[in-house]
Design a protein that fits this description.
homodimer; nine-stranded mixed beta sheet; about 220 residues; 5-amino-6-(5-phosphoribosylamino)uracil reductase activity (chains A, B); alpha/beta; Dihydrofolate Reductase, subunit A
């Protein structure tokens, strides 16, 4: 049975890094501190850096990192996360995920601009562009996932849109023990989410707080 | 050696209940869910309800509740927390803490209005009203505390004022696993607090996240 999953990073004050696609570092300087514990995990080092030595943390952070990469068959993301806003008029722009994006399944990019043809990439990822209602895109992604889960990959505004519409089964927020004082709000307009989902809180060795909302 | 302590309640999205002194329930309807785990502790039941049966939770929530009531020799609070804004023109108003307030030591009320004479109450509490700089009030409270700690008791704006001024040694925030979507912001203007204080995160059986900033 397909479940719809969202993973977010937050500070104690409820902000995630606000991406700036036109900056040298498009995720912004706050992204590093927000995700430091995640980047230190064995899974992340292996999947992202190709580190096969087995180095990296192995506690609760690692447990969440490992499950992040498991059981997903399709993904939905906002246009900004694909990088579409950076090159809105370039039909050859293939996103900022590199020649071999780390997905390996269909990725549905939500856009309000004109439809684009799909882009097959090395490694099994295909970027599809959709202008329809999020419910319709989710229905299509669910079929494409073939019984695996669908991830709503972000950005945070897209994730909150799915959450507010009641479309998310599993929300995981990794809260770094830092105060950012700025960024994109993670929790806006989600009052009462604990009444539709079961909440669990855990703390990792890194001090990261893992909050899950499950239904 | 006197330490300056602050204890706050927050939701996951960084709000605490915004008091409305003119409402029937001056702490607001969000105060109950925010403090439910605290109200369930053995210490709270004993200190506030006079329940001497020993009933109540005994885990991490209780540990923080017990230390809340230990080792404080003076307190500073904002005028709103005394209830001064509700009756600004009534010189006989003695606050909303009842005939025998639960302090038992000097309580310095910060006010911008005209100075008032101090109010001695049953049980050892004396309310003092001060219009000076927070550093001066803290110096006076520190002397009054006689080697015990000084609590900055709130509200949250007063607490943040002391935090921003670098006057707080120990901040404890009890984060309830709920999303309020409204209220008084707990963390505003505190970016980088983790660089001046050591942060520790723990989770209680209730799901409450206890974050402490210590220096």
């Amino acid at each position: 049975m397909t479940r719809v999953r969202v993973d977010l990073f937050s500070s104690l004050d409820g902000y995630t890094a606000a991406p700036d696609p036109e900056a040298d570092n498009p995720m912004g300087e706050d992204w590093g501190p927000l995700t430091a514990a995640y980047a230190a995990t064995r899974t992340f080092r292996q999947k992202v850096f190709g580190d096969t030595s087995g180095a990296g943390t192995t506690g609760l952070d690692e447990s969440f990192a490992a499950s992040f990469f498991t059981g997903v068959g399709a993904e939905i993301m906002g246009a900004a996360m694909f990088g579409l806003h950076a090159y809105p008029d370039d039909p050859d722009w293939k996103g900022w995920w590199g020649d071999q994006p780390p997905f390996g399944y269909p990725v549905y990019v939500l856009t309000h601009s004109a439809p684009r043809p799909s882009i097959p990439m090395a490694g099994g990822t295909t970027f599809e562009f959709r202008t329809g209602a999020i419910e319709d895109v989710l229905a299509e992604a669910t079929i494409a996932a073939g019984g695996l889960d669908v991830r709503v990959g972000g950005g945070v505004r897209t994730a909150r849109e799915f959450l507010r519409a009641g479309l998310v089964d599993d929300l995981h927020v990794a809260i770094a023990p830092i105060v950012l004082g700025r960024g994109a709000p993670v929790w806006d307009d989600l009052r009462g989410l604990e009444s539709t989902h079961r909440v669990q809180t855990q703390v990792a060795e890194s001090g990261t707080i893992h909050v899950t909302f499950t239904r």
